[in-house]
Write a structure and sequence with these properties.
The radius of gyration is 19 Å and the shape is flat. The protein has one domain. By secondary structure, the chain is mostly helical. The longest helix has 24 residues. Helix 2 packs across helix 6.
């Protein structure tokens, strides 16, 4: 029984990069529509931010917009995955605090459930990176190979 468990565990660990790819793509899809909405009318977003009392609303509207647009592109490619995860997590914290918190947890009530899930997935990507099915992995291997050749 123990050998069966170890065999299954070993085979499953070979698939660990698939969930990382799936997380990246789900998050990218989730950021796409809000990013495009913001991009189409950043002025309206700035006005909305001002109505909520967010400081420097125009600056913050542009920061949120371009963070989400960059997130969509970079997460899709798996490029700079760890780096883009940080500002996206911050964006989710701000969204929870300013928009969702007072509505409670449930997504059906516009609560913080979905942004919280996004934060958990982004934190997972921050810790694990984009996985083997990513531009990050390709670049890492390329740089590693060049470094090894340089020291031979």
């Amino acid at each position: 029984m123990r050998n069966i468990y170890f065999t299954i565990t070993e085979k499953l660990s070979n698939l660990k990069d698939i969930p990382l790819l799936m997380m990246r793509l789900v998050l990218a899809y989730g950021f796409y529509q809000p990013a495009m909405m913001k991009l189409n009318d950043v002025g309206a977003i700035a006005e909305w931010f001002e109505s909520m009392g967010i400081p420097a609303p125009t600056l913050n509207a542009y920061l949120a917009t371009y963070t989400e647009v960059s997130g969509f592109i970079l997460l899709t490619l798996g490029f700079a995955t760890r780096f883009i995860s940080i500002p996206l997590i911050i964006t989710m914290i701000v969204a929870i605090k300013t928009v969702h918190w007072e509505n409670g947890f449930n997504a059906s009530d516009n609560g913080y459930e979905i942004p919280l899930y996004y934060m958990i997935m982004l934190f997972t990507l921050f810790i694990n990176g984009g996985g083997k099915i990513s531009v990050d992995y390709f670049i890492f291997n390329l740089l590693k190979k060049k470094s090894e050749e340089q020291f031979k």
